[in-house]
Each structure stands twice: as structure tokens, then as C-alpha cells.
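Exercise 3.2. Students should predict the tertiary structure of the chain below and write it as C-alpha cells, then compare their answer with the key that follows.

Predict this chain's 3D structure.
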Amino acid sequence: MSSGRAPASAPAGAVRLLDAALPPHERESIVGDLIEVFADRVDARRPFNRMWFWAQAFAIAVATVATRWSTPDMGGLHMGFTRAARRLAHDWRYAAAVIFILAIGIGPAAAMLSVVERVLLRPLDYYEPDRIGILRLDLGQLRDHPGISPSEAIDMRTSGLFAAVETETRLSEVSLGAPPNLVSLSQLSFTTGMLPLLGVTPALGRSFTEADMPLPPPPAPRQAGVAAPAVTLPPQAAMLDFMTWQTQFGGDPSIIGRLVQINGRSTEIVGVLPNGFRLITGRAVPQRIDIYTPLRLLDLRNSWMYPTLVKLRPGATFEQTQAGLDALSANIKQRHPEMYDGDLRTVRRVRVSYSIRSGLGGTGALAIPDLTSSFEVALRN
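Answer key:
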């Protein structure tokens, strides 16, 4: 994330409520992700953001406290139900109030529990999910941030620590078609090896290749008194989400190779992703994205907004990989002291601090060793 704006401030009272309700091993990741989504809503100028944050915090707190209740004695439970039934039958106004309160409380709690089940408990729908991780960092004002810079992603690739390192951009909006019949779509770019890393095969067409990202032609020599000729960009490649293919193009199998207009640029549809595909970003619950384009990594080190997925080498553990990351990050900071030891967006000196966490999908548990190191590898479900 590059400098430019002060981070949005989430309601302090709601954050304290989450700190009090959540267990220590889950507190940092859940609060961090919630604050990230809050910041995105503020950037998008959505209404009632603070009210939304309070509602989410209250629902999480209720769901967390509910799971701590111990199972009551069955005899006492039967007696309690009997007394409650008599009370409800005797005073219908009281009964209506109880039902109303339960409806308000159970609805958000059930919704939040479904989120927890999908994010923490359900295994990743990817190939070998126990070898897949996402890099996170603490840098200045960025805390547990699911994004690194493109240059750092290149460093990860050349280090040889991972079997694969693939990067994506943050979510954005694009326009499909030509005026006045524009359709707004969500869009995200990722590097060409992302789908092979995840073990995902397109339902139609093919995945991205390096040939889908031709370098722009060199500028023509300038001549005095002559305007520079306009640069014509070649068609870019794109892959469609399965539901976008169905809703926007009627599920037409001849869509492959068709040229469409995306933000006014000619775009060739090269593939359709399988039904139900969701790409993890580390910021919130994975959501459906309408269209994907290929991403080329550039030498850019001061923009920490690129979520990066990694795949461990066969037989390697997160602890072993972390030891290599310790040495790598020390080398990176030594080669670029102006980026990691200088003043970045704050008046104080910035220190880079990271920790490692790992977890296994489907177990319902997230193990977080208490370690200090230089780059974090977090396995997210």
C-alpha cells in the first residue's frame, strides 16, 4: 500500500468489545480483517460505515461468547423450558418481546457463524491446501496486512524458498461494453501461475500465459514540430467468472476468442473459470469476481497492496520456510534501508516486524506459534 491517505479510524469502543470477547489466538486476525473491510467501505464512500462496524463487532462478540457456554444439566434444562413455557403462556406481551429479542440476536449470530465456518473451519477448495500460504506483514501503520510490494514478490520468487509465488491486485470496478450500454463489473488481476498454483483448470478455454502480456512498443523518436503518434494497445486477455459468463453472455460456448470492450480497451476472452471459483485475498470472505486479467510484476517496492500466495516446497514445513525467510528479509532490508528503516508515512522511525502463523483447513483450529521473525507466512482458510 502506498502512502497518500491516513487510514480510516474504526470505532474504538467496538474494537475494545472485540478485544474483550475474542480469544487471544483469534483476536488479531479477525479484528485486522474487519478493520481492512471497514477501510475499504470508507474509501468507497458507503453510508453508515461506523454503524456497520458496530453491528459486525456485536455479532462476532455474541457468537464468540455463545460458544463458551457449557452444556447445562438436562434435568435443569427441562425444568427451565417448562417454566419458560408457563411464563410465555401467561403473559403474551412478554412472549412477544422475548421472540422479538431472540429474532434480533439469532439472525446476526447465525450469519456470523456461517462466515466463521466458511473462513476458518471449511478446507480450502484448492489442490494441496496445507501447502498454500499468504504473506502478511507489519510495516509502520500496516498491521497484519495481506499484501506486499511487487518487488518483494520478485524477491520471494528468486529466493528459491517456495515452489511457487503468485500475486494478485486488489479488487476494482470496470465497465463492460460501449456507451451508453455500459455494465459495471468487478475485476481483479493475477499473475499467470496463479491457477496452476491452486490446481484450478478453466471450465472453458485456457489459463493466462506470458504471451498474454506483451511489452508495450518502444516510443517512436520525436521530431521537432511533429506531434507524437498515438500508441495503439494490443487487445488484452481476460477470463470470465462462470456466473458472469452465464448472465452477461448467456453461457455461449463461442465466447472464447471473442473481443469485448473493457474500460474502452479491446479485450479477448480466453477462458471461463469453473463454477463456484473464489480467489482468496486475505482481507475478507472470498467473493465472486466477474472478470480477471493477467498481471505483470514490475520493480515497485513502495506499494504494499498486492496479496501474494505462496506454495511450500514438497516436504517443507512452515517452520523450516520461516527460517529461510528470516535470512531473506534481513538481506532485503540491508539492500534497501531507505524503504524499511526510514520514515514512511509517520514521524517516527519505522521498524518492520513479522510473525509466523500456520493452520490446517478442516480441523476447526488455527495454531499460532509465538515467534518473531522478518516475514510472515499465514495459512488462511
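Discussion points: The longest strand covers residues 132-139. The longest helix spans residues 92-121.
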